[in-house]
Predict the structure of Outer membrane beta-barrel protein.
Amino acid sequence: MLKKLLLLLFVCAGTTAVAQKLTIQGQLVDSAHVALPAATLMVLSPKDSSLVNFGTTQTDGSFQIKNLNAEPYLFKVTFVGYAPLTKRIDPQPGQAVVDLGVLSMQPKSSLLAEVTVEADRAPVTLKKDTIEFNAESFKTVKQNAVVEDLLKKLPGVEVDADGTIRAQGEQVQRVMVDGKPFFGTDPKLATRNLPADAIKKVQVFDKKSDQAAFSGIDDGQREKTINLELKEEKRKGFFGNATAGFGSNNRYAARASLNRFTKGEQISFLGMANNVNDQGFSIDDYMTFTGGSQQMARGGGPVRIQVNSNNQSGVPLSFGGRNTGIMSNYGGGLNYNKTFNTKTELNSSYFFNALDHNLDQYTDRINYFPTGNLTFNQTSRQHNTNQNHRLNTVLDHKIDSLNSLRWTTSLAYNQTDTKENSSSKNLDADGTTANEGVRQTASFGNTTTLNSTLLWRHKFAKKGRTLSTNLTLGVTDTDRDGQQDATTTFYGENTGTNHILQTNRQDTRNNSYGVNFSYTEPLGHRLYLEANYAFRSNLNDVNRLVYDLNNGEATLNTALSNQYTSDYQYHRGGLNFRMNRSKYNLTVGSTLQQTYLDGDLKLTNTKIEKSYQNILPVARFNYDFTTSKHLRLDYEASVQEPSLQQLQPVVDNSDPLNMSTGNPDLSPAYAHDWRFNFTTFNPANFSSFFVFVDATLTRNAITTSQTITDQQVRISKPVNVDRNMRVTGNATYSFPFTKLNSRFGLTATATRQNGVNVLNDTESNIAQNTVGGTFRYNFRYKEIFDLDLSANLSRQSTDYEFNTQADQLFFNKTYSAESNLSFLKHYSFNTSFDYLVYQSITTDYEQSIPLFNLSVSRFILKNKSGELKFAVNNLLDKNLGVSQQADVNYFQRQTTNSLGRYFLVSFTYALNKHLNPMGARPRGGMIRIQR
């Protein structure tokens, strides 16, 4: 059916393409005959003034609007500070081009009277490096829609199933409201909680680094950012919405968003409670829960192929998949921003999460070795609970015109409780059971983390000469208790049973502090020299005690216990040369990094002292062809020093069949990273194209070697290999078909990864290739109906050097469809369908999962501020999740329990429409878009 629909659409498009088309062209100047670039051009229907097409003028004032039907139009031109200009166009039969010649605009000040008409607002406006969308021109079909629904309608903006936003091909890292942070840096907290009809404008731009914004020297670093500008009436009262729903199988879902934005002050409250797997967790939450951000701060992070990477935190990530088990989630928070005066500003937020998670999982893994394939099967059941509090504050104070302070503080408290029961077995190449085990584990504890920075910035009288100093402090305190009861039975020549009954306790203290200086000196002709120096010290104190239990008595196991202290110190000094031009900027430089490690293993009375020295060059080049066409080239070197945990030869037997140990001879890994990025966006026809290529070559790469014992116990150890390499490419083209009210998007991706597998001290090369693509189609008819279709295909193959193993090949496919229909003024109907296909050519496995959801809504109360909805989720009752992946020496498939069919009746009250009855309707006329 999908193929037939797409064929029909392309046939219609081809038929349209051969019809007679019209081009309108000319040049726009002011009264002094000076060109007017970036003016907004609108082609309107003379019948009802609906928008047919629009564009902008070039730098010389010239313009062309192509592919119009040969019929009469109203041609309107608007430009800031000038009176609108309107012309009627009546093309002659067979005429292909209407040349309007040179059009002259008059300043508004020359008019005797001026009338502002809201309908004249352009759908898209270019302001230097910012693309600004008028939200009224991109209304959603959904009633009570959130910002995420609005973003999906904007040309050049895409939103993935997990809420990840991409604008002009780049991932959006930050979403602000009226230029202020909204609950920290997680974009989804804004896009999934703020109502769409509260937004007046959506501004997409590349946010420069804080250092570049302060010094005025473009360092080439960018962060794709979206700013949501609120309607004026939304700043005069409270707005938001609240939803509560109950359904079959005791399912419930509740969510509330309450906001009050006034001049100089923003207050927002968010709350949620549900047991329908609505997690609300982002990668930032996960990094906070696990302390991953602290680990990343200790050194570089070159890409490496890692054999085993299990998440033991008990915190699921919201990546949009179905392999999540069954969850109940509760959360709430407050965001408060305050501008006290022209010098002092506060941004702050507090958020609380509580998660209850049940996960049943079956793992089927084939390990490929030159001596034959080994099979590992495991059935596990987990119950995880997590509670997290986090507080963030940013205080900005301008001492005077030359000096400013920024104090940033984050405080987090995380408490987790994880219990797991599992049974597993390993099979030889001939299918004989080599060993099997049963294991019960439990872990519980808490982590408190404090991070604070104080930044002082000073501008000298000479333009471009700046000095900044940043002081950093980090404190992490973790206390965890655990217990393990594991029985492993070995077969074959060494038949026997091994029983482990242990408890453990680990206290970890991590303190870090540092300082860095940055000085910029102008050299003239927009050339600059930057000198920088940074010092950082990470102090760790770990006390892990493991006790064997025997007849109720606890005996310290010194082989598994570990007590150590470490001090990692970094000294970095460097010089950067920068050249800034109107079209481009260039940065080249280098840094010398000296690293010292001083470790003390107390139980073994062993000292570990290491010293590393590396030169880290950097080069960045940005070229802006126009305000909507950019080229970025980057090269950067980084180093990953091994942690003390990786260096110490202490065995971890938390899984008796998969143990690990450290390597005192481990050396740092050195990575070269090249990035190429080209983006172009045509505001005249809403087409966009971008290409991204990232290549990383890691010398002396750190990977994980494996030693398989005669009893098939796997012992993992970090080792260095000569090199790893990874190349990733991505290209996307998006374009509209105005005549069909449609939009198409095509994405192609490819990844090539070469690594080294180390098995029983023998190295072999592994090559992994992933190719895929995404097709998206959107059809929209006025504000009545819209349809979204997409297909995402991925093919992954793994080639092994040893000839005894056949190469791996598998496919992951996702087909999706979603539609929204508004009818009879007060009703709406929504359906969504996902068809997931998992296929392994090598193992002859195929699993398909159809997911079908539908809902019908009735809108009540004044201005449709009340919505009564009946929804059926997972109508076909497919309570199964599947994932499959191949790595350097294994192919793995996991099946997971997932939420089955349930019915939900909910009521949503849109507070913004009640307190602002005019909020649902713009002042003056409204443009009706036909696209």
Summary: Residues 130-276 form a domain with the Ferric Hydroxamate Uptake Protein; Chain A, domain 1 fold (CATH 2.170.130). The CA atoms of residues 878 and 900 lie 6 Å apart.
